[in-house]
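Appendix B. Chain record.
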Amino acid sequence: LKELNQQKINFEISDFPANLFYQAMHSDNGIWANPKKDNTFFTPHVINAIGHTECFLLPIHMDNNPIGLIYTDCSINNKPLTKDDFKIAKHFAQQAIIGLALYKMKK
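Structure tokens predicted for this chain:
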């Protein structure tokens, strides 16, 4: 189990061709990606990293610069994502941004 927790996943943020991670990092409010609707953004690298499943990707910005993404899906239990799930995920991302801002203020 310890080895599993130490695995790293590298996300390639590519603008040519534009992939899901690139789209999310450059969005203001995050994206709700659906493989059927957004198939062109599910590049082979994206599919290898996260699969070909419906998901939320929410950018984390610091000083107007994207510094990371919060990724959410329900593939483990195969349930569809809902509007409430997206609202909660966006709230979680906002809380992360607030936490980073407070941390920066203390430095």
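Further analysis of this model is presented in Appendix C.
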